[in-house]
Fold:
Amino acid sequence: MNTANHQRLVQTRRLRRQRHVRNRLSGTTQRPRLAVFRSSKHIYAQMINDETGATIVSASTMEPAIRSQAKYGGNKAAATLVGRIVAERARQAGIDKICFDRRSYKYHGRVAALAEAAREAGLQF
Structure:
């Protein structure tokens, strides 16, 4: 298989998985969507109200406060830290129930670590 065709196929499959997950979820004022983005070196999480299109709270391993605690942003320890911090910020904003948007990622590894840390910090999925 040609490299360009393979990359196009992988991207098409990823977008299909992302749409499949996203079609079932919608963030509201009472229950915002916790969207996760994972790159090779960092992980990002944000609470989104899809009714207004506004981001309510966010956290990522790019923030200086989190970078000082996690030396590397691409592992499960950093994802756990981001999950805990985004949950604390959500609780301060008065949010305790969310719907989890894992995008096209499997609920495994860093994505699962972030979700479990957010649950332990008091968020209900």
Q: What stands out?
A: Helices lie at 3-23, 64-69, 76-92, 110-120. The two ends are 41 Å apart (CA to CA). The beta strands are 33-38, 43-49, 54-60, 99-101.
